[in-house]
Amino acid sequence: MSDKTFHNQEDFENSVEFAKNLDANDALKGFREKFLIPSINGKEQIYFLGNSLGLQSKNIKEEINKILDEWASFGVEGFFMGEDRWLDYHDQLARPLSKIVGAKPNEITVMNQLTVNLHLMMVSFYQPKGKRNKIICEAKAFPSDQYMFETHIRYHGLNPDEVLIEIPPRKGEYLVRHEDILNAIDKHHDEIALVLFSGINYYTGQVFDIKAITDAAHTIGAMAGFDLAHAAGNISLQLHDWNVDFGCWCSYKYLNSGPGAMGGAFINEKFHREKKIKRFGGWWGYDKDTRFKMEKGFKPIPTAEGWQLSTPSILLYAAHKAALQIFEEAGWANLQAKQRSLNNYLWFVLDELNSHSRQEVIEYITPKNKDEVSCQVSMLMLKQGKEVFEELGRQGVMADWREPDVIRIAPVPLYNTFEDVWRFGNLVRSILNQ
Ligand SMILES: *Cc1c(COP(=O)(O)O)cnc(C)c1O
Q1: Which residues lie below 8 Å from residue 64, measured CB to CB, with a gap of 6+?
Q2: Is 389 close to ligand 1, i.e. is its CB under 6 Å away?
Q3: Domains and CATH numbers, the chain
Q4: pLDDT-derived band of residue 6, with 50, 70 and 90 as boundaries?
């Protein structure tokens, strides 16, 4: 078994010994040790909320302390001195991130936070002109994105009800069909300025086909952008090769960089030297060689960094750097392999829950996707939903609750175990059988 990273469902067994054996043979088994796992009643939690706030790795405190020490030793000279040279600190983040989202390092910038960055990207990539003023997005996008759309559209003097086209799931379904997205893009082909979807819907866990949506947007002359909050650090992305125009994400979910961590943005290099593109400027986006001459006239850095405005928080950079180091050490391919196995085992355990019950007790909203594996599974509880959720919490299983009757869980490859998954399934079964 040790030479296999991908397990077929037929090979699985629903027993704690089997789960422990999978853990013993896990190529990434040492990584859990690098994290601080919260406890309940003296027992480590089964933490399935990596999609909400990823756990803290032990190196984060060290890396933040390093900045505090540099500040103490150098004062403002820390921007130019010491091992880190805060002025260039950004490069230490762009490189590992570029592997995680499939971009060139110069297409990445780490700045602000997610909703702020979405607004900034809209400044550059949403240019309503006459009839071509519409935006296509998914219905029930994350609330912050909905408010961003609403207020940004009003800022252009337009009416969100007329301009925003939201694609809903069909009646009686949970997921948005890709054909419905592509048909809507086609139908409104001469009215659409921007197509902006999430990479993964936060509620259903649906993974959108970023490449197909991007191609369809480009075919009709629209821009294509993505909110990758639930995708970055979770699924494999190839933002550059898919020719995505822009993408934004937060770093506190799967990227484990701490509450309120710095956000990230991808801006395709084809725009970096584009003079006509609109943007908001600030001194941190100004050409690095001449920034401190403080001259009149905005001269942007000809990379994604040219979209930066303000002096970044070096303390938050430090947390982000430490978190990304763990991804580097694990290696993206290894993480994806473990994620696949963990996800397969999760589905095996989940399917057993239904098959061992007299009637179906859980409906899985998230599709079982063979091609693209995401950590998250959203479960619609057909009976005793709230009761199951609350008892899971008392027993130290951290999941999240969404009205009505949905429990979301996201076992992640860096610090969750096969045993976590088995215990979760076993516990749900025992609660339902009480
Ligand atoms: C988590 C999340 C956000 C949060 O935005 P912040 O500005 O970081 O608070 C926005 N959009 C989506 C899709 C999210 O999942």
Answers
A1: 315, 318, 319, 322
A2: no
A3: 9-34+331-432 (3.90.1150.10), 64-328 (3.40.640.10)
A4: low
CA of 430 to the centre of ligand 1 (A): 35
Write down the mean pLDDT value for the chain. Answer: 95
Is the minimum distance from the CB of 381 to ligand 1 under 6 angstroms?
Answer: no
Q: Which amino acid is present at 84?
A: D
Tokens of residue 40, six digits = 């309940």
Q: pLDDT category, 2, cuts 50, 70, 90?
A: very low
Q: Is 153 exposed, middle or buried (0-12, 13-18, 19+ CB in 10 A)?
A: buried
Distance (angstroms) between ligand 1 centre and the Cα of 42 equals 32
| Atom number, ligand 1, closest to the C-alpha of residue 252 | 8
In ligand 1, the atom with minimum distance to the C-alpha of 202 is 15
| Dist. CA 224–CA 414, nearest whole Å | 31
Q: Let me know if 206 is exposed, middle or buried by CB neighbors in 10 A (0-12, 13-18, 19+).
A: buried
Q: How far is the centre of ligand 1, averaged over its atoms, from the C-alpha of 220 (Å)?
A: 28
Q: Is ligand 1 within 6 A of the CB of residue 146?
A: no
